[in-house]
Design brief:
With 39 residues, the chain is mainly α. It is built from three helices and no strands.
Length: 39
Amino acid sequence: MLDEKFESKPYKEKTPEEIAFLLAQALGGVKGMSNGRTQ
């Protein structure tokens, strides 16, 4: 479902952490905050 938004970006070249972070932000950043990965 969210692939449509990431289809424009070469997320495959990114690291699993980057993908997880991007997915977290796409979901509202809720998971990002829970994971403690706040820049």
